[in-house]
Design a protein that fits this description.
Layout: H1 2-7, H2 16-52, E1 58-60, E2 63-66, E3 72-76, E4 79-81
Length: about 110
Amino acid sequence: MMKMLLNDEAGFIISAELVLVATLLVIGLIVGLSEVQHAVVSELNDVAEAIGSLNQCYSFSGFSKVDSGGRTHANSFGSQFYDTVDDCDNNQCQIACDAPLSEGPK
């Protein structure tokens, strides 16, 4: 049985080098995914700025129907809306992670 175990080459031995390489790959993957997250948030912020910079004001006038006797038969009032600056228009707020803070006393 011991001879079979020594001659068995179907297994995999985890060496310290492989553990180190796998650890470095996982750390690199985490850093890469963090950078992808920041890039996606930045692009979505650009899209939001483009939408927020559109002029959304509108107005329309009313109308009325008055007969020859001066009586009003039908009328419709106009309306208007003026778009004001929102809180996050023109990059006034930051959409990203907060700055790191030091730990408090333990």
